[in-house]
């Protein structure tokens, strides 16, 4: 990111289920921004343990 002059601001790990390891990472960055002020957001869990997709109400 440094090569492209991007400063990370928010980082969030994405978990497929609560009992699994994170398989994605979301990073919000600002071009030519300060390196101060990076925040780690709470984890984002995509599916409930019963397999229902949390974003589409199980449809």
TrEMBL record:
<dbReference type="GO" id="GO:0008168">
    <property type="term" value="F:methyltransferase activity"/>
</dbReference>
<keyword id="KW-0808">Transferase</keyword>
<dbReference type="GO" id="GO:0032259">
    <property type="term" value="P:methylation"/>
</dbReference>
<dbReference type="InterPro" id="IPR029063">
    <property type="entry name" value="SAM-dependent_MTases_sf"/>
</dbReference>
<protein>
    <submittedName>
        <fullName>Methyltransferase small</fullName>
    </submittedName>
</protein>
<keyword id="KW-0489">Methyltransferase</keyword>
